[in-house]
User: What shape does this take?
Amino acid sequence: MKSILIVDDQYGIRVLLNEFFKKGYNMFQAASGMQALKVLEEHEIDLIFLDIKLPGMDGIEFYKRAKEKGFQNFVMTMSAYDEYDKIQEAKDLGALFHFSKPIDLNELLNVVIELVPVEDKSVFEIDSKRLGSKKRKKIKAKAH
Assistant: This one.
């Protein structure tokens, strides 16, 4: 089974994402960048949900350190704030998507299934009417 790591200092976000995705993925959680680096050392992770704003080591610094340690798989950033410079920096590091909080779980699920296919999609109840939401956006390069 594929694995997802949720890196977010907000307990409620971690619990929500964990409960939603645990039906199809092995789930791991970290409240800080340091905790997340420890998880990466101990487990094979296929996808990271990464909050940009974290206390201490922010999401960008965590991502840089994870890459230095050899992490090559998918990263999706999320934030309650429109921090275009940080979003662009994450994109430059290799992040594929950015989600603004509050997160539309059906949108997120559809992107996750595209990136890290689940063995049995039927474990998730997908609301096909919500597939066209505008909250999902591929990160685009910032115009200079």
Residues 46 and 73 are 6 Å apart (CA to CA).
